[in-house]
Design goal:
Elements lengths: L5 H13 L2 E2 H10 L22 H4 L1 H17 L6 E6 L5 H13 L1 H4 L2 E6 L6 H7 L7 E4 L1 H5 L5 E8 L8 E6 L2 E10 L2 E7 L5 H9 L8 E4 L1 H13 E13 L1 H4 L10 E4 L2 E3 L10 E3 L2 E2 H10 L3 E7 H8 L1 H10 L4 H15 L9 E8 L15
Parallel strand pairs: 2-3, 2-5, 3-4, 5-10, 10-14
Antiparallel strand pairs: 1-7, 6-7, 6-9, 7-8, 10-16, 11-12, 11-13, 15-16
Bound molecules: S-adenosylmethionine.
Amino acid sequence: MSDKTALNDIIAARIAQQGRITFAAFMEACLYEPGLGYYTSSGRKVGAEGDFYTSISVHASFGRVIAREIAQMWRCMDSPPEFTLVECGAGNGRLACDIMDYLGEREPAMYGGLELVLVEREPSLEAAQAELLAAHRERVRWLTPELFYGGSFSFSGCLYSNELIDALPVHRVVMTSEGLLEIYVTIKEGELAEEVGPLSTPVIADYLQRLDIRLHPGQQAEINLAAQEWLALAARVVRQGFVLTIDYGYPAVELFAAHRNLGTLLCYHRHQVEDNPYIRLGQQDITSHVDFTSLMQRGQELGLQTLWFGEQYRFLLAAGIVEELEEVERSNAGEEEKLRLRLALKKLIMPEGGMGDTFRVLIQSHGVPNPKLLCQRRIGG
Ligand SMILES: C[S@@+](CC[C@H](N)C(=O)[O-])C[C@H]1O[C@@H](n2cnc3c(N)ncnc32)[C@H](O)[C@@H]1O
């Protein structure tokens, strides 16, 4: 069976016309080429039937704990009569739905003045989102990325995302005896192939320099310039409030450590991890781990204060996942539901082999004096 798809011809034609392309341009096409990219073609599914699990597909308790923290953010802003929640990269809307369900049930005063804005690059997901969020119809609206990032929209509240940054196209570099070079995608003997060359933009070298990171000879790494651009746009839009980012990744010193000699680029297809991005173009997910240090540094320059950064398990424990479990245990939910929640809890917070350690949470604030969030509580204290 051939691993080639319709995207192969499109990318090959592009290279034939303009010469080699950056890996970021290649990844952009694989994920977002209209109608053919992984996120822009039909049939992509998250969860048991799909290619990968996200924390959201594990259990609603994940969204409910985030909702607890969002309600706390609202309190830190003196419980304003109006509060806007924005989700970027909302996927099928599951997380937004779990958050809205919780706020509707538990925080009626906040819910009364709540508006949810969904921003998703793939417009066809709106139908699935609308169906899941039917009970909250009056509170939801959609903004295209063009309108959202375009400059005229701004809001007070919280902008959150789950696994958005890891899905942004990255440049790839390698340290050689000639210095830092970029990895490009070209065609050799009719097949996609890699080729190294000078950096496509000096911003890449500046990126590593600002972090004081020097790669070791032979070491490869991904540079997510799109994440920096995204944060700059996001910072402009949040008039007052919080930016909550959940993703897998590390601080820069860990991400660019010598033992990660080949970087962190990975592909997912039907729950199998694949390290070859040049097969099944548009049919496998391509991701790379997030450099949280750069998000914090850049945020600081943009006026976003880092309030909290840490592993997902710490966030979930401090923000109330045990309380969630206790409530379900006390409720008249069936034994099966209780067991499901216990297993989900284990998966979401287990440091090794679970999602608790690889996933990190970053909360930044803008214009909120002295906020005290739930995740800042000492666990078990
Ligand atoms: C890995 S998926 C995560 C979906 C969902 N948040 C989840 O956790 O299941 C990333 C999503 O972000 C969307 N996306 C990518 N770039 C975006 C951007 N700049 N603004 C909004 N959505 C974007 C993609 O279309 C895709 O649906």
